[in-house]
Amino acid sequence: MNVFGMLAKVVPILMLIATGSVLRSRRFLKPETVSDLKKLVLNITLPCLLYLSFADMALEGRYLLVMLTIFSACLVMLAVGIGARRVLKQENPYYAALFTGFEAGMVAYPLFIPVFGAEHTPTVAIVQVGQTLFCFFVLFAYMQHQSGHSLPIRQRLVWFMKTPVIVAVVLGILASVTGLGTALAGSLAGATVLEWIRLVSTLTVPLIVLVIGYELRFDLRDLKSLRMPLVTVLTRLALMIGLATLINRLVIDRLLHLDRMFEMAVYTIFLLPPPFMIPILMDKATDQERQFALTTISLHIVVTLVAFTLFIMMI
Question: What is the Cβ-side half-sphere exposure of residue 1, based on CA atoms within 13 angstroms?
């Protein structure tokens, strides 16, 4: 991609992030309003986007191996995080969680869609399913264990299946497999509902990026407090890039012979910051431990934007 084309796609994202930051500094939006916007995205607009992605997609058996590979990669990175905590002598019991998982819902789509096109949304959706399963069933359990308690697997499964994003994915897959999506489009009522879903889905990217800009914050005046979070971010990113390259060459290309857009999706996912749910699940953490996680994630968002921009310039 030429520099002009890259800038035309990436700069608007940066402008939206800057807009979100300005809205916070000017107190144009209240924190409660932004929290409601996040609920709107996670419960309505993003599920609409994912439903359309899977409903319009021709599913193949080899996609299951993609999901399993990403799930396994997340497991590997959790083990790496546990080892890194020992090597770096970090007392924070939640430190290892910052090495694994990806904030796909709130970051992947705003980066991937403007650059590669909405028609390729199913590709990044397939790639991120494996990490979604990991976050719900492994990372969540790990965080609960570190807090000294755990949620029974049955309750986690119920919670997982009731999540709007998962419901949308399941309905989208059913619509694709059964042909129901095509049948709905052929009727006036069905076409009307599908058009509503499409209109709502277009809100996803701008709303997410504005929220990211609003919540992006760290204190540049205290550089000492940024040193270890930055070490964590750069270490994680280096490992993730190596892992993504390995997956693309061995699995996506040589084994499955998938098209190049899957490689782009894998690189995009592996450049992402850790899941935003991590600080929320740190219910037994001290203020210092929680702030470390928040600072690390905020720094990672900035590093992700820089890394993704460089990545786009290189392809």
Answer: 19
